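A reminder from the course coordinator: this example appears on the midterm review sheet, so study it carefully.

Given structure:
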């Protein structure tokens, strides 16, 4: 046998190597990979995607409950009161825009379903005391009634308080000109004292008071009739800060619970205070936010009586509170001699 040359042997070995390589590739193509053993091939999209669970039908959104409408006072007196305050805001508050005035009046709305009381201040105005009290009322969007003495209005700084009272929605009442006790005066003298003070208030503001507080709280049926002849009503009080107390804490405590009879403050009360000493302004820093926190609305005397009295605020009447009053006019059902109590 002839021996192949070296080059021939090399060619034979290369051919054998290629043949072995093709054999292995063929075998590999026929054998499934280890992770596919025993499994049926799936389309790529199905093998790689986990089916999502069926979604529940979308539920309709739960409708929001209708807001409870705010109680609204529809009486004629209330519309007239709002119109009056709008005019006072223009005249004394520096408001020109109807939109701004409407916003202020909206903040002063009264809720007849919530408790309310009337803060009242006697013997002022004293600018150094009345001014800070007005600041506190403004801060808390509260109102009060100021029973002023006519003689104090001779002083410009005191008289300036009147316009600010009206701009803040407060009521101005009459407390005579010289703090004259009615029991010592004739009808003519009483009328003079009241009209003199009303005249000074009107000259300064164009406003005429309808509420009169007798100095010392003393009056008789004759006085109710005399005051009524001026289209006014007598307004006393049912709760007091006690004029003898000089410390703010004692004044506040007395308003919330009368020391003499342990009577607590109630809806419809008229509260007696005095704007003549600095400690009263300090007391109001405590009392006003305290009353608001307890749920009371702080309104004027006429607002309180119009809201709480079935027949509203009227002349020829004497009011201790919204639920304690009497008439001095025979035409209104009271005995002119006795001042028959017709309170509810």
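Designed residues:
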């Amino acid at each position: 046998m002839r021996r192949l040359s070296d080059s021939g042997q090399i060619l034979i070995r290369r051919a054998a190597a290629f043949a072995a390589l093709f054999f292995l590739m063929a075998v590999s193509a026929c054998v499934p990979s280890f992770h596919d053993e025993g499994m049926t091939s799936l389309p790529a999209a199905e093998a790689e995607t986990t089916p999502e669970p069926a979604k529940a039908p979308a539920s309709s959104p739960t409708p929001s409950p209708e807001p409870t409408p705010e109680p609204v006072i529809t009486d004629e007196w209330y519309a007239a009161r709002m119109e009056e305050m709008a005019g006072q805001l223009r005249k004394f508050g520096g408001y020109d825009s109807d939109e701004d005035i409407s916003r202020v009046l909206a903040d002063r709305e009264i809720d007849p379903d919530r408790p309310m009381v009337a803060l009242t201040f006697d013997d002022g105005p004293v600018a150094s005391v009345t001014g800070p009290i007005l600041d506190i009322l403004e801060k808390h969007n509260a109102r009060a009634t100021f029973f002023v003495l006519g003689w104090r209005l001779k002083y410009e700084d005191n008289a300036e308080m009147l316009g600010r009272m009206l701009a803040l929605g407060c009521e101005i009442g009459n407390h005579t000109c010289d703090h004259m006790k009615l029991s010592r005066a004739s009808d003519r003298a009483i009328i003079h004292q009241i009209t003199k003070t009303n005249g000074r208030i009107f000259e300064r503001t164009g406003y005429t008071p309808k509420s009169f507080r007798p100095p010392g709280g003393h009056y008789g049926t004759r006085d109710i009739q005399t005051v009524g002849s001026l289209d006014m009503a007598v307004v006393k009080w049912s709760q007091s800060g006690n004029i003898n107390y000089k410390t703010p804490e004692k004044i506040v405590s007395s308003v919330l619970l009368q020391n003499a009879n342990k009577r607590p403050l109630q809806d419809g009360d008229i509260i007696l205070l005095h704007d003549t000493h600095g400690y009263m302004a300090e007391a109001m820093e405590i009392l006003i936010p305290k009353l608001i926190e307890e749920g009371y609305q702080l309104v004027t005397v006429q607002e309180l009586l119009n809201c709480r009295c079935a027949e509203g605020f009227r002349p020829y009447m004497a009011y201790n509170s919204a639920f304690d009053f009497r008439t001095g006019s025979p035409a209104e059902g009271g005995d002119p001699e006795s001042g028959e109590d017709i309170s509810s």
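The first helix runs from residue 6 to 30. Residues 73-109 form one domain.
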